[in-house]
Amino acid sequence: MSNRTQKPSLLSKDFSKLFSPVRINADILEGDRPLALYEFASIFFPNMVSSIVALLLDMEKHSQKLIASIEPKKRERLINDLEGVTVEIHYLMKDKGKELIALPIKICPAEVLRNAALSKLGSRYTEKMQEEINQILVSFIKKEIQRRIKSMIEGALKTLLVKPRMPATLKKLLTLGLIDRDGRLSEGATIEDLMSGKYAGLFKRVVPEELINEAMMLKETIKACYGWEGEDYLASANEALAEKGILEIILGEIKE
Amino acid sequence: MTNIRYLIYVPVLHTQKETGEILLSLKADEAPPPADTSLAEQEKSVKEMWDGIHEKIQNTNISCPTIRIYQDGMPVCGKEKEIAGKLAQKSSRNHQLILDLLKKGANLEGTEDPDLLIEEYDNLSHLISKASVSIQSYRDSLNEYKEKGAKLMKQRDAFIAERIKSTLKEGETPLLFMGVRHELEKLLQSSFVINYIIYRLPFKKVRDIYNV
Fold first, then answer.
1. In a domain, B200, yes or no
2. Domain boundary among A92, A125, A158
3. Which ipTM value was assigned to this complex?
4. Which residues of B touch A228 (CB under 8 A)?
5. Contact B121 A247 (CB under 8 A)
6. Does any domain span residue B147?
7. Which of A26, A93, A142, B174 has the fewest Cβ atoms surrounding its Cβ within 10 A?
8. How many CB atoms lie within 10 A of CB A113?
């Protein structure tokens, strides 16, 4: 049985043991920063991340073609000479000194040559990594969604707070410290707490139901679109089965 | 002067209840175990969504006889009303709403190419057959389905877009009920001003930027 330890996830907080080429400190990417940053990057470095990943994938995928033209003796010598040598490119974006996005690319030429000689495909930069990169992108989107829902709800609360007769439930939210006098949600209060969690009952009495429905719908739609439930086998299988069921009824009706 | 044509777009999500009803109508040996009951919250929000959609359609003040409905999965077959009725009986909120609108004078149009729906059905059948083998086999098959499905969805969308353009009569407003996998907006935005009856996908820009 293999005793290899599991590779730490790109999404884990401890990046120190991480070998993958992309890591993003999603926790400090708040507000308009992701949008602004990506807009900037898309203008000045179009396809930067995907190009680097593609380059690495290509390097490992196609390197055996290149290595095949090198004599075995020369190849062996190259591997020996390059043993322990690493090529490191550290691409870093910082926000007020805090690391925002890092692309710590580490290439071990000897390993690349050895893998190429053995025709090993994608030993390191595998689909698994691509999957994790996608998860990071989805987590950005999720953050952005939460930010927008939060801003939508805070906007509604602000309007209610300036009314001459403040609703009693709103006072309660203030007393509980869930919102401040400007309608902003306090640090500990999450959107989930208010919309569907422990304070939902209280919150519903203050914020128009339509707004809550829209926020929930927004979440559900995006959830369906971006497959946040990707790992939920049963939900996915049931969804497929239901879709098939609907078509079965429809196609059955046509045949009759 | 060109007349601005509006189109109402409603994204379709099914509630667990209707999914359950449909599952019950299928053979028991095909069905995977029922989904977790913790989805009750989601169920509630989707149900509320349909109530909200119903209300919002009423609030648009568009006269029902000028509405032409285009429905995801509804083949061009001449039996559109019967199909809607049958699915409404199976607790489909989507189809119950259609029946209600039909009673008020709206028109239901055959929307999809039946051959493409048969293809979709075959793909789904293959996928589901793998669900009973193992989770891994289902997941592998799901990836394959997604690949095939994306191509097929493009064909379905192209057919639907053409169908809307060719069947819509002067003065009518198209009302689309489409599953979230469809991307008809791209094909229709040059001909119509799209009104998402609920606040749908305002993050498209973000999606584009992230190239997901």
1. no
2. A125
3. 0.76
4. none
5. yes
6. yes
7. A93
8. 21
The SS3 call for residue B84 is helix
**Are A116 and A216 part of one and the same domain?**
no
Per the CB < 8 Å rule, is A42 touching B209? Answer: yes
- Is B198 in contact with A234 (Cβ distance < 8 A)? no
In this structure, the strands spanning B67-71 and B6-12 are unpaired
Cα gap A21→A104, rounded to integer Å: 5
Q: Say yes or no: A251 and A146 in one domain.
A: yes
- Is pLDDT larger for residue A243 or for residue A212? A243
Which residues of chain B have a CB within 8 Å of the CB of A251?
75, 114, 117-118, 121
Identity of residue A125 = Y
Between chains, do B138 and A224 touch, taking CB under 8 Å as contact?
no
Is A97 found in the same domain as A154? Answer: no
Boundary-marking domain end, from A100, A125, A150: A125
User: Distance of CA A156 to CAs A19, A30, A212, B173, B177, Å?
Assistant: 45, 21, 11, 32, 29
Q: What pLDDT digit, counting tens, does each position of A67-105 carry?
A: 666 777 887 888 888 888 877 766 676 777 776 666 556
The residue segments making up the domain with residue B21 are 11-30+40-185
User: Distance (Å, rounded) from C-alpha A103 to C-alpha B15?
Assistant: 42
Q: Please report, as a single letter, which amino acid is at residue A202.
A: L
Which pTM does this prediction carry? 0.50
Q: Which of B25, B152, B45 has the alpha carbon at shortest distance from B93?
A: B45
In-domain check, residue A222: yes
Rounded to the nearest angstrom, the minimum Cα separation between A69 and chain B is 36
A181 and A213 within one domain: yes
Interatomic CA distance for residues A102 and A50, integer angstroms: 14
Which of B32, B41, B74 lies at the smallest CB-CB distance from A238?
B32
Total tally of structural domains belonging to chain B = 1
pLDDT, one tens digit per residue, over A151-210 is: 777 777 787 777 777 777 777 777 777 777 787 777 666 666 666 665 666 666 666 666
User: Is A173 inside a domain boundary?
Assistant: yes
Per the structure, the count of domains in chain A is: 2
Q: Tokens at residue B161, please?
A: 């877009």
Please state, for a pLDDT cut of 70, what percent of chain A lies above it: 32
**Which range of residues forms the domain containing residue A151?**
142-255
Question: Would you tell me how many other CB atoms lie within 10 Å of the CB of residue B82?
Answer: 13
Contacts of A226 in chain B (CB under 8 A): 212
Helix (H, G, I), strand (E, B) or coil at B132: coil
Does B44 reside within a domain? yes
Residue B26's pLDDT is 46
The verdict on residue B70 lying in a domain is yes
